[in-house]
Amino acid sequence: MIFKLELPNLNKKSQKKMTLTDIATCFSTGQFSPIQPYFSETITWEIVGKQQISGFDQVLKHCQSIEHYFTTIAYEFHIQAIHQTGHHVIVQGEAQFHDTKQTSRISACDIYTFDTLNQLVQIQSYCISIQ
Predict the structure, then answer these.
(1) Could you write out the three-class secondary structure of 42-110?
(2) What is the largest CA-CA distance in the chain?
(3) Exposed, middle or buried by CB within 10 Å (0-12, 13-18, 19+), for 25?
(4) Where does the pLDDT of residue 131 fall: very low under 50, low under 70, confident under 90, or very high at 90 and above?
(5) Could you tell me which residues come within 8 angstroms of residue 72 by beta carbon, excluding any fewer than 6 positions away?
(6) CB contact set of 113 (below 8 Å; sequence gap of 6+)
(7) Which of 43, 49, 52, 106 sits a CA distance of 20 to 30 A from 13?
(8) What is the pLDDT of residues 93-107, one digit of tens each?
(9) Dist. CA 114–CA 23, nearest whole Å
(10) Among residues 57, 52, 53, 15, which one has the least CA distance to residue 36?
C-alpha cells in the first residue's frame, strides 16, 4: 500500500473526534475500522449502477469484505479534491489495484451525508473504470 493517511488517536484517553472530512477520507480510501463508530444504525450505501446496501450490519459486512480484499493486493489511492458544505462531504479521487495478473484503475467520486450528530447516514459512490 502506498497511500498513508494520518488519523487522529482514537483511544479512550483521547477526546479528539474525527472531522467529517476525516471520516469521509477514511471511507473513500478503504480504512473502515477506525470510522465504524461514526456509522448510523440506518446507514445506506449506494454503489451507483451496482448495488444498494442498507443498515449498519450489511454496510459493515461489505466494508469488512473490502478490507479483507485489500490485504490480498497492492493498491494506491490519490485524493484529488475534498469538498464540504454543511453535513455533506464529497471526495474525488483515483485508485489503482495491482494483483498478480493485472493493474486496474478507477476514477471515483463519493458523496457523504451526515446527520446532526455527525453520524454517517448515506454514501453514494460513483466508480468508473479507466483504461
Answers:
(1) EEEEEECCCEEEECHHHHHHHHHHHHHHHCCCEEEEEEEEEEEECCEEEEEEEEEEECCCCEEEEEEEE
(2) 47
(3) buried
(4) confident
(5) 99
(6) 87, 88, 120, 121, 122, 123
(7) 43
(8) 999 999 888 899 999
(9) 10
(10) 57
Cell of 108: 471515483
3-state secondary structure of 121: strand
- Report the percent of the chain where pLDDT is more than 70: 88
**Among candidate residues 95, 128, 88, the one with its CA nearest the CA of residue 28:** 95
Q: Give all strands of the β-sheet with 120-130 in edge-to-edge order.
A: 51-54, 39-47, 120-130, 103-114, 88-98, 74-85
Distance CA 17, CA 22 (A): 9
Q: Please, which residues bridge with residue 129 across strands?
A: 106
Q: Which three cell numbers, joined as nine digits, stand for 129?
A: 473504470
Amino acid (one-letter) located at 74: A
